[in-house]
Amino acid sequence: MLEDLFVGAWHSIVYGAVGIGLMAAGFVLIDMLTPGRLRELIWVQRNSNAALLLSANQLGIAIIVFTAILTSYDEFGKGLASTVLFGLLGIVLMGLAFLVLDMLTPGKLGEIICEDQPHPAARVSAASHFGVALIVAACIA
């Protein structure tokens, strides 16, 4: 019984580290899609558009990781691999959704996200990221 507890704790640590790594990759994605440094935009300039987009991205990735773990294979290695695969797939698809939305709308979405004043395009882009995450999570389940 104690061994099961330690194995479960170890799996939690590994899955947690993978989830944090995927969320960090999501941060890098948003940083690449928006001009300037995301850290500066959100934490120094207090840009609500960038914060909204990053928040939707982080929550979306968390939903994907949650679903992948919840529906995981019984074998730890397979479950971990599927979590990484679906997490990366979600990040790539969120980036693609951003680029498609940018092509379909006027202006440059990255620049709009960086504007000081709240902009409706930030809400649409955030919804797009979150929607993609829900689609990927549904594919996992």
From TrEMBL:
Residues passing through the membrane, by range: 12-30, 51-73, 79-101
| Keyword field | Cell membrane, Membrane, Transmembrane, Transmembrane helix
The keyword Ion transport is assigned to this record? no
InterPro entries named in the record = DUF350
Task: Kindly give the membrane topology term recorded for this protein.
Answer: Multi-pass membrane protein
* Compartments where located: Cell membrane
From what superkingdom does this record's organism come?
Bacteria
What's a Pfam family in this record? DUF350
Name the predominant localization: membrane
The UniProt entry's sequence similarity note says: Belongs to the UPF0719 family.
Name by which UniProt lists this protein: DUF350 domain-containing protein
Gene source species: Asanoa iriomotensis
